[in-house]
Task: structure prediction
Amino acid sequence: MSLLRWPGLVDVHVHVREPGATHKEDWSTATAAALAGGFTAILAMPNTKPPVVNEASLNLALDAARRKAHADYAQYLGGTATNAAELPALARRAAGLKLYLSHTYGLLWLQDMSLWPALFRAWPKNRPLVVHAERHTLAAALFFARLYDRPLHIAHVAYREEILTIRAAKERGWPVTCEVTPHHLFLTAADVADRGGWGEVRPRLGTARDRDALWDNLAVCDVFATDHAPHTREEKSWPNPPPGFPGLETALPLLLTAVHQGRLTHDDLLLRLHANPRRIFDLPAQPDTWVEIDPAAEWTLPERGYFTRADWSPFAGWRVRGRVRRVTLRGRLAYDDGRVLVPSGYGHNLREA
Ligand code: NCD
Ligand code: ZN
Ligand code: ZN
Result:
């Protein structure tokens, strides 16, 4: 059995839920799940309670991270109707600025387009700007990036019309990058039609045509990101279930299975899970850090037994090929066959290096 030895993977889109919703996830469980999935660094989204939108809330999130994280991390700021003026001074401490231009879970929706210019102008051009923008709103976001002459990263591209629009922008040479999630690559709305709240996610799963368009335009997709969005089993069973799927522990096995099936290559994965995230988000190298993977291990993604506190997966029962065996983070064996071996607080803030 020969193991692959890969550099530490980076997930640029993770909902850690701390502060405010640690019954769903916290910095310890999220980063344990990351290590188990082969991710040695995560970028944490700002739609927490309170949301991370100013110095006080950034300090709150980073203090919890410093005490509890097992893996390395950085924390995003979120744009609001009123915080543009405060953002530049915090830019170097943040993973990037996240703008919620389409409606989703949390309180950060910037529904009124007249709120956008102040935020596009305020955030430094050389720091990452990420948008949740679906369908026509995605085109509006590209227009604003153009108007204010700055790079833009588009989160979780889900639909054919979106990837074609981004392709057109790239063909013009516009500085736009984007990510796709495993669930938009491997699932369609039809696959979850009978699952009620368990199938709710934003952007909603597309049609087979949408999914196929992502595969057909993989060259346009710069990054694979999980959008790990843990909610509890109880919450997913409610009448108004919160949208989101856990994803940290299933992404790599699913993608390696696609490699086994000849749908993409190991280099395709390394580019989108390591090199491109580091380049686009300007992340420092993690020295003496690697992931050992058994590409031949066949197993079934379980119903339970994950490190994520949500402890479920939309892919439970899927037969996959490829398994993370060990993770070494900054010279220390951090994960070994189902056990996290580094303590809470071992993780570094990648924006403090
Ligand atoms: C995310 C969440 O739960 O925070 N939910 C989701 O369905 N993806 C929010 C988001 O990423 O849009
Ligand atoms: Zn989103
Ligand atoms: Zn998200």
Remarks:
- DSSP finds eleven helices and 14 strands in the chain.
- The chain has one domain: 4-340.
- The mean pLDDT is 98.
- The pocket of zinc ion (ligand 3) is lined by residues 13, 15, 45, 227, 229 (CB under 6 Å).
